[in-house]
Amino acid sequence: MPLNACPPVAMLGHVTKAYKGRRVLDGFDFALEAGQVTALLGPNGAGKSTVAGLLTGRIAADAGTVQLFGLDPRAPLARARLGIMLQAGGLPETLTVAEAVALHAGYFARSLPTSDVLEQAGLTDLAHRRCDRLSGGEARKVQFALAIAGSPDLLVLDEPTTGFDPEARRAMWQVVRAKAEAGAAVLLATHHMDEAEALADRIVVIADGRILADGPPAAIKAQVAASVLKLRTRLAAQRFAALPGVVKVETVGADLAILTTAPRAALEAAFALDPAIEAFEVTSASLEDALANLVTANRTMKEAA
Amino acid sequence: MSAALIAPAPAVYARESWAEIVKSARMPQFIIPTIALPPAFYALFALAMGQGSAEVATRTLATFGVFAVMGPALFGFGANIAAERESGQLELKRLSPMPAGAQIAAKVAATTVFSMVAFVLLYALGLAGGVVLPAGRWAALIAVHTLAIIPFALIGLGIGYRLGQKGAVAVANIVFLAMAVLGGLWMPIAVLPQAMQALAWTLPSYHLGEIALMAVGKSDAANLWLHAGPLALITLAAALFAWTGERQQAG
What we know:
The structure holds 2 protein chains of 2 kinds. By secondary structure, chain A is an alpha/beta fold. Helices cover 33% and strands 27% of the residues of chain A. Chain A has helices spanning 48-55, 76-79, 97-105, 114-120, 136-148, 166-181, 193-199, 217-224, 263-273, 287-304; strands at residues 10-19, 22-32, 37-41, 63-68, 82-85, 154-158, 185-189, 202-207, 210-215, 227-232, 246-252, 255-260, 279-284. In chain A, the strands form 3 sheets. In chain A, strands 5-6-7-3-8-9 form a 6-stranded mixed sheet, with helices on both faces. In chain A, helix 3 (97-105) packs across helix 4 (114-120) and helix 8 crosses helix 10 (287-304). The model of chain A has no long low-confidence stretch (mean pLDDT 87). Chain B is mostly helical. Chain B contains 12 helices and no strands. In chain B, helix 3 (28-48) packs parallel to helix 6, helix 4 packs antiparallel against helix 6 (100-128) and helix 4 packs antiparallel against helix 11 (204-215). The radius of gyration of chain B is 19 Å and the shape is globular. At the A-B interface, helix 2 and helix 3 of A face helix 1, helix 2, helix 4 and helix 5 of B.
């Protein structure tokens, strides 16, 4: 089958969106494929929620094309295939968990049986608990249950595991992975790099309304190829800021952690600065560091331009 | 394809309405003031203070029926919509394939049910207090009391779309009391100062109370349009108030 026979699940074509005169997106192109978990990463105000809002029809674009399953995202037929977990999602306080799930599932013709939804969301034991008597993490699980209740072809999750313990987090990740393997597209907006790394097939980094990187997690890390240089020195941290390729310098306990794109040159320069360095260590940066690196590099380039 | 994806609308309307009724029925802070207050006041004002007068019992029943509708309509729509909007529940529903009218229809259904519970209690007290009406007048009274839901529900909606939960409850309370007192539902507006009597003409509660009095034969039905006309205009204004509020929060 040729690739173009499979239209994207959702797409933004050359979209422009401004809030109060401030352009959040400017000629933005983006598409989501079926069967993939796509993580949207970036600092606050980068345009993540705008992208998610446009694709789900919460926000209207100023210019450009927005399509969900080839339709306007506000079309009932598009919404019938969409499952959303909003960041701030209240629940009907006096309904039980099972009642709330059954009510929401009832909007969809392809809904899963309530007992299946509760089991997948890890809520079987709480089925008859009233929604106003749930903890924060439990309420998040109910919101996740509402998102999957209609067996959506696109699942949009905004910071899904806030308030979860590690076990509950892994359990939800497993369900999300299973949904993607069964063919659903998943859009994940998260601040947790480990979540993106564990879950995503594709990571899209955005900052200031532009895509800075787009690819599998390993490629994103390789693209920036940043390293962390750990030094034990008596010199002040700011003296190392001018080393080759340095993105940021942090004090970690008795050591300095220097994020750099040129670890070898930086290490040599560090020894030139302080021949009395007691210990050093070079490791490859985490995804979180790689992301910080990308964003900072983008800002520096913009300022220089 | 569409048939396979979207749930049949009548079933969604029915489930949404049932959920709305269950939700409110489990809130004592909603049920007690909205359902118990009007019959309690009626027993006190009309029956105990009226000293067994069937005339007082009948007149008061007509106006108190309007009073009984205001609680569920103003609080059910105003305060509940505000709470659901603030918590994000409304947005999640809007992003689902739920038909747009289902939520409003469900609230109308719940308000009607709770108003009717309040009427039935009132009517039972009225009968016990000596109210005697022919079947036609009962039917007319029930019709007026049921139609009274519309303007108050619209006002409640307009408040609920504009204010947060706390603000909506406070404003609904003020509107509730003002409508009752200045609209002559508790006692005829003739006992109020002249300036306040003029104000009554702008209130749906006053016109509905007068029309309810006509229904029970305690006011001249020849004057129907004198009250039905202003009431229609006020209802139209309330609809505009609700609609602009909806646009404002959806946009």
